[in-house]
Design goal:
heterodimer, A: 4-stranded antiparallel sheet, B: 220 residues, 2 domains, 6-stranded mixed sheet, 7 helices
C-alpha cells in the first residue's frame, strides 16, 4: 500500500498527519494480554502469601543456622573438667592439680575453677535452693577455655588428667555439640523443605493461572497470530503480564515478611532484659536477620517474580504448540 | 501469489465443505468472493490465511507450498496479508489506536515510529477523533472501519476482507470500496468476500469467484 491512493480517496494531507502526530500522545501502551482479571488478582494474592511464607521459612532457617553456629562455636570453645571426691584423696589438691594440668596443656587459653559454693550452686536447679550440701561429696567443676585456633589436643589432655589427677574427668562437650548440630540441621532442613514446597505450590499456581489466561484470551491469541505475531512474541507478552503480576505479589509478600522480621527484631530488643527475651535470644540469637537476611528476602522476591514470568512464557509456548 | 490446486476441505467426518477448488490470485488483481450463506466463503478465507489445513489438494502462497511451511514461515506469510474479519475481531481492552497499530507492534516496531502512520490512517477512515476510545463504545460501522485500518496499516501485498461493508451505510460502503480499488491500483491484490450485489455492481470489472455447493466458479 502506498500513501497516495489513500490520500486521494480520503482527501487528507501530509500536513494533517503531522498535526496529528503532535496531537495528544497516545496513552501508555496497554499489555496485549489483559492483566486486570479476577484470575490475575487471585494470582497476585497467592504469590504474595507464598512469598511471605517462603520468606518466613528462609528467614527462620537463617536465624536458626546463625544461632546454631553461635552455640556450636561457644560450646566448642569450652571444655569442662569434673573432679569427683574419691576416698583417700584430697579433693582440693586434685582440683588444683587438674587445673594446673589443664592450664599447661597447649591450646588452652584459660581455666576457671568453680569454688565449692559455685559447684553446689550448679546443682540448685535440680535439687532446689536452701539445701545444705556440705556433707555431700559434691564434684567440683573446672571450665577450660580453649583458644580459637583449635590447637587444643583434648585427647592428650584427657590422658594427662587420667595420669596426674585420676579423680578428674574431661568432658569435651562432643555429645552436646552433636545434639545441637542434629537439632539445628533438622530445623534448617525442615525450613528448606517448607521453602521448597512453597515454591512448588507457587509454580503450580502460576502454571495453572497461565493456562487459564491462554484459554481465556484464546481469541486474542488467534487475532495476534493472524496479524503476524510469532509464538515467541505472544509468549513474551504473557511473560510481561505475569512478570508484572509476580512483582506485585512479591512486593506485598516480601514487604510483609521484611516488616515482620523488622518488627520481631524491634520487639526482641525491647524484651531482651526480660527472662523471656533471654530465652528467645538463647534460641534464636539476637532475632536479628541483619542485612544478609534482608538481602536473601530481596533475592527470593526477585527470583519468584522472574520465575513467574519465565514459567508463564514456557507454558504459553508449549500451549501454543499444542494449539497449532 | 496464491494458487489452489484441487483443494478440498472437510470438517471432521462431515461432508466436504469445499470441493476441488482450482484458482489463483495474481498480484495486482481484484476479486469478489461471493455465494450464498454457508457456501464456505469464510472457510476458504481461513484456508488462505493458513488457519485451516486442506483435507486434500495443494495451496501455494507467495511461492511456498503451505504443507511444507513451519510456524515461523506461516508467521512471515501472514505479515504479507491484511485481513478484515466479518466480526471485526478488535481487541476490547485496547484503544482504537492500539488496535490499528497492532500489526506494526507485533513486528516489534517502536510506538513512536508508527504513531504518525496510524494517526494518518485513522484520519482517512474518519476515526481520528475516536482514536483513544475502546471498541466497546464504537458503533458497528466504526468498528468495521477500524478493522479495515488495522488490515491496511502494514501495507499488505494481499488484502482479504470478509463482508467489509456489512455494517456501514451505503455512502461509507462506496467510500470503502473506492479505498480497496485504490489499494488494488497501487499493487495490492484484493479479495472481498461479500453478499452485497450493489457493491459488486459498482466495480463491474472485478473478477468474481462464486462459491456454490462447495465448488468454485470463476468469472473473469
Amino acid at each position: 500500500m502506498t500513501q497516495s491512493p489513500l490520500r486521494k480517496t480520503f482527501g487528507s494531507t501530509v500536513s494533517a498527519a503531522r498535526e496529528a502526530e503532535d496531537e495528544n500522545a497516545p496513552p501508555r501502551e496497554q499489555p496485549l494480554a489483559p492483566t486486570d482479571s479476577v484470575a490475575g488478582r487471585s494470582l497476585v494474592i497467592v504469590i504474595a502469601i507464598m512469598t511471605f511464607l517462603a520468606a518466613l521459612a528462609a528467614g527462620a532457617a537463617l536465624l536458626v543456622a546463625d544461632a546454631s553456629a553461635d552455640w556450636r562455636g561457644d560450646v566448642a570453645r569450652e571444655a569442662s573438667v569434673q573432679v569427683r571426691s574419691m576416698p583417700g584423696r584430697d579433693l582440693e589438691a586434685d582440683v588444683a592439680e587438674a587445673a594446673r594440668i589443664a592450664k599447661a596443656a597447649p591450646g588452652v587459653r584459660d581455666v576457671r575453677v568453680y569454688t565449692k559454693a559455685e559447684s553446689e550452686a550448679l546443682l540448685a536447679p535440680w535439687l532446689g535452693d536452701g539445701l545444705d550440701l556440705s556433707e555431700l561429696p559434691t564434684p567440683r567443676m573446672i571450665v577450660v577455655m580453649l583458644s580459637a585456633d583449635k590447637s587444643a589436643n583434648l585427647a592428650k589432655l584427657k590422658q594427662d588428667l587420667a595420669a596426674g589427677a585420676p579423680a578428674a574427668a574431661l568432658d569435651d562437650h562432643r555429645l552436646w555439640l552433636d545434639r545441637l548440630s542434629a537439632m539445628a540441621n533438622t530445623v534448617v532442613a525442615v525450613a528448606a523443605l517448607i521453602f521448597a514446597l512453597m515454591v512448588a505450590v507457587m509454580a503450580v499456581a502460576v502454571a495453572s493461572a497461565t493456562r487459564a489466561a491462554v484459554a481465556t484470551n484464546r481469541e486474542i491469541v488467534e487475532v495476534l497470530h493472524l496479524v503476524g505475531a510469532s509464538d515467541d512474541f505472544i509468549a513474551r507478552e504473557f511473560e510481561r503480564r505475569f512478570l508484572a503480576l509476580g512483582f506485585r505479589g512479591v512486593l506485598i509478600g516480601g514487604g510483609a515478611a521484611a516488616a515482620f522480621f523488622a518488627l520481631a527484631e524491634f520487639f526482641a530488643r525491647s524484651f531482651t532484659a526480660t527472662p523471656g527475651g533471654e530465652q528467645i535470644e538463647a534460641m534464636f540469637g539476637s532475632v536479628s536477620l541483619g542485612p544478609r537476611g534482608f538481602a536473601v528476602i530481596l533475592i527470593l522476591c526477585a527470583a519468584v517474580a522472574l520465575l513467574t514470568g519465565r514459567m508463564s512464557r514456557m507454558i504459553v509456548l508449549n500451549r501454543l504448540r499444542e494449539l497449532s | 501469489m496464491l494458487s489452489f490446486e484441487d483443494v478440498s476441505l472437510r470438517y471432521g467426518m462431515g461432508p466436504e465443505t469445499l470441493c476441488d477448488l482450482n484458482f489463483s490470485i495474481e498480484p495486482d488483481s481484484f476479486q469478489f468472493l461471493t455465494g450464498p450463506s454457508g457456501a464456505g466463503k469464510t472457510s476458504l478465507l481461513k484456508l488462505i490465511l493458513l488457519s485451516l489445513k486442506p483435507t486434500r489438494g495443494r495451496i501455494s502462497l507467495f511461492g511456498e507450498d503451505s504443507a511444507t511451511l513451519g510456524k515461523s514461515a506461516i508467521t512471515q506469510i501472514r505479515r504479507r496479508i491484511g485481513v478484515v474479519f466479518q466480526d471485526f475481531r478488535l481487541l476490547d481492552h485496547l484503544t482504537l489506536y492500539e488496535n490499528v497499530a497492532l500489526p506494526l507492534r507485533v513486528l516489534g516496531r517502536d510506538e513512536a515510529s508508527y504513531r504518525a502512520e496510524v494517526f494518518e490512517l485513522l484520519r482517512w477512515v474518519g476515526l481520528f477523533d475516536r482514536k483513544f476510545s475502546l471498541p466497546s463504545v464504537l458503533s458497528g460501522g466504526e468498528k468495521q472501519r477500524a478493522a479495515i485500518a488495522r488490515a491496511l496499516i502494514a501495507r499488505p501485498e494481499l488484502l482479504i476482507a470478509d463482508e467489509p461493508t456489512g455494517n456501514v451505510d451505503p455512502t461509507l460502503a462506496r467510500r470503502l470500496l473506492r479505498l480497496f480499488v485504490e489499494l488494488h491500483k497501487s499493487g495490492t491484490a484484493v479479495v472481498i468476500a461479500t453478499h452485497d450485489l450493489t457493491l459488486m455492481e459498482q466495480y463491474d470489472s472485478a473478477r468474481r469467484l462464486v462459491l456454490a455447493d462447495g465448488r468454485l466458479h470463476v468469472f473473469e
